[in-house]
Amino acid sequence: MSPKKIIARRAAMELKKNGIVNLGIGIPEYISSVATEEGILDRFTLTVESGLTGGSPQSGLDFGASLNPQCIMSQPSMFDFYQGGGLDQAFLGFAEGDEEGNVNVSKFGVKLPGCGGFIDISQNAKQVFFCGTFTAKGLKTEVSDGKLHILSDGSISKFKTGLEHITFSAETAKKNQQPVMYITERAVFQLTEKRLDFDRVCSRSRS
């Protein structure tokens, strides 16, 4: 039960019956394996942006492939589907978030990985779930007696005030009445009209 699997299992609890779902790169990749373990793959349709629909999308170096897909289409056609509002749910990774609920995945100092299809997917899905660890760089955890224990917290908090880039706009999501959830290994947040005091949350997580 690594942090990735804890988050993936919690995220899988949000999968909607008969929903069309996108799984993004990173921790969301592992939602498919959880669904396979639980024998619930037939309750919804999982997709990845490379053009695969249905089946069991793979993770790690095999991301972009799927076992027993129902359909294989070109990537431009898949994005036509996404942009046309075909997605019921999108599960995406996140690198940074702020107290407003904005997310950055595209710029970190001199590093500019870019947004890829992140904006197309996150802005057009009916529901969005951001999946990632609460901290990074050095996080060590252990699960025993049915509880998560933080052995060593990461030195980098992924929730902060002020982002270099806003790749996902919480303000736009609220205007569009788009449900948004942030799933970590130790806490789950929901986007509301109120601000979330991440500093206080981070302080409690280290105590």
Question: How does this structure look, described?
Answer:
This protein has helices spanning 3-12, 31-38, 75-83, 118-124, 170-175, 198-206; strands at residues 20-23, 45-48, 52-53, 56-57, 66-67, 71-72, 89-93, 96-97, 103-104, 127-131, 135-136, 140-144, 147-152, 156-157, 180-183, 188-190. It is α/β, with parallel strands linked by helices. The protein has a single domain, classed as Glutaconate Coenzyme A-transferase, CATH 3.40.1080.10. The chain has an 8-stranded mixed sheet with strand order 6-3-2-1-7-10-15-16. The longest helix has 10 residues, at 3-12. Mean pLDDT is 88; it is low at 199-207.
Secondary-structure map:
Elements: H1 3-12, E1 20-23, H2 31-38, E2 45-48, E3 52-53, E4 56-57, E5 66-67, E6 71-72, H3 75-83, E7 89-93, E8 96-97, E9 103-104, H4 118-124, E10 127-131, E11 135-136, E12 140-144, E13 147-152, E14 156-157, H5 170-175, E15 180-183, E16 188-190, H6 198-206
Parallel strand pairs: 1-2, 1-7, 7-10, 10-15
Antiparallel strand pairs: 2-3, 3-6, 4-5, 8-9, 11-14, 12-13, 15-16
Helix pairs in contact: 1-2
